[in-house]
Amino acid sequence: MVLVLFVRHGHSVSNQNKILSHDVNNYPLTEEGQSQAKNTAKELLKLKITKIFTSPILRAYQTATIIANELGLIPIIDDRLRERYLGDLNNKKFDPSDHWKIKLIKGQIEVKGLEPWESMQRRMIEFVNSIKNEEGAIVAVSHYDPIRALIGYILGLDDISAFGISLPNASITAIEMIDGKFRIHSIGSPILSQELLKRLNRYIITINQR
């Protein structure tokens, strides 16, 4: 049994400028993103967090570092949490009102080298399986598409069918794995609500037992 708290990275320069990028060392967090990460860390202090993993991409690693400092942990880089490989779209600007995914599915554009939905699902499932025997709750800082792909896998949705899943910057998606089965507790939540904390009570009790 493991609870994984997937955190999307905080607001970054790429978000600000509406740029798609899988680059490792570009597009750091904005001041807003740093503040978002600190607020998320305060929420995560409500649970007993034992480890924090992160994508190697700068905006995610910076988010994880801010959270880890608050939790007294050291972030562990895991490449499976990385951003979707964007192929020809890398470092391209996009218009949210005329989304590239819709153009792609309609055949209006061709994108060479784009990582398939199924590839993201496989690596995210592999990540969860690799930590399923960990104690307590685990934080994993990643990106919009990989987290959405895992949710899509659990709900049986393809990339376009899962198009409307909202994962704001620095939001928390809580997914529990029990006996090989997934249970979603929250999707893209800015806080850990009291109702959610009641459902996750066993992870709060742990902190009082140690």
Automatic annotation (TrEMBL):
Signal peptide: none annotated. CDD domains: HP_PGM_like. SMART domains: PGAM (SM00855). InterPro entries: dPGM_arch (IPR054929), His_Pase_superF_clade-1 (IPR013078), His_PPase_superfam (IPR029033), PGM_Phosphatase (IPR050275). Coiled coil: none annotated. GO terms for molecular function: phosphatase activity. One of its GO terms (cellular component) is cytoplasm. Substrate binds at residues 8-15, 59. It comes from the Archaea. The active site is at 9 (tele-phosphohistidine intermediate), 83 (proton donor/acceptor). Gene3D superfamilies: Phosphoglycerate mutase-like. This is Phosphoglycerate mutase. It comes from Acidianus hospitalis (strain W1).
